[in-house]
Design goal:
It is built from five helices and eleven strands.
């Protein structure tokens, strides 16, 4: 009669399971260490780019809160070896520039750099350019800043039904009236904001040609091309559109050194 040996049959199975579990645990630990190292390296690059962007914005005569930089794409270390990065996002808050002595405020400017080239030596020494194939920027100019550039006492700007709306006190033939209207907003020459107030009126306006002419002349006086301060990263304005919180600006550039904002 054969004798069963269950203990001897179970031991190899248990040993095999223990080895498999050990290998899985080691792989998880190794993977975790690699991910941690990858993120640490990305953090070092982000801090280096942050410092250089801050320096370049200062050289440009503009001001902002410390840039918030994020290097996208995973794994980061393989991008370092390749010298090419999928995406670098830069957020600038409280950006202020000057136009003819007047401050222009952008509460936030988001910059998205794609296909960024930077050698390992550039990252190590912080010498040389970090060049982005394309750079897109979106920001919002406050209506208060825009109204200041128009330099008309009491004039306020806002958004109504998707258009730029204006309200301003006017004195026409000795009567103090309130002008209201809307403007067409486009990108003018050299990236300026082109304002054309073609639809204006004033309640109580005398029904005579001279009064209408004076009102039209005021609208023409504020229908100008408003220059903007130089945007960082060589960004050129492509589109402007009114939003409730301000005038949204979309800009773009190609082959730009993002660590050289001039």
């Amino acid at each position: 009669m054969a004798t069963a040996h269950p203990a001897y049959e179970e031991r190899p199975r248990r040993r095999g399971r223990k080895v498999l579990i050990t290998l899985v645990v080691l792989l998880l630990i190794l993977g975790g260490l690699l991910v941690a190292a990858d993120r640490v390296a990305a953090g070092v690059a982000e801090r280096a780019i942050t410092d250089q962007v801050s320096q370049q914005i200062t050289k440009q005569g503009a001001q902002s809160s410390p840039p918030e930089v994020e290097v996208g794409g995973f794994p980061f270390l393989t991008q370092v070896l390749d010298g090419r990065y999928e995406r670098i996002s830069i957020r600038l808050r409280d950006v202020r520039g000057s136009v003819n002595g007047d401050a222009v405020a952008l509460p936030e400017l988001d910059v998205d750099a794609r296909n960024v080239r930077a050698s390992l030596e550039t990252l190590r020494t912080q010498q040389g350019d970090v060049v982005a194939e394309t750079v897109d920027g979106t920001g919002t100019i406050t209506y208060e800043s825009l109204a200041t550039l128009l330099d008309r006492p009491g004039l306020t700007l806002g958004q109504r039904d998707g258009r730029l709306a204006v309200t301003a006190p006017v004195d026409i033939l000795g009567q103090k009236l309130t002008l209201t209207g809307t403007a067409d907003v486009t990108v003018g020459k050299e990236g300026a904001i082109s304002l054309r107030f073609n639809d204006v009126d004033a309640e109580g306006l005398p029904n005579i040609p001279l009064a209408r002419t004076l009102l039209s002349n005021y609208a023409k006086d504020i229908s100008i091309d408003v220059p903007l301060p130089d945007l960082p990263f060589q960004l050129a304005v492509r589109e402007v559109r009114p939003l409730p919180q301000g005038l949204a600006v979309t800009a773009a550039a190609k082959d730009v050194p993002i660590n050289s904002a001039g």
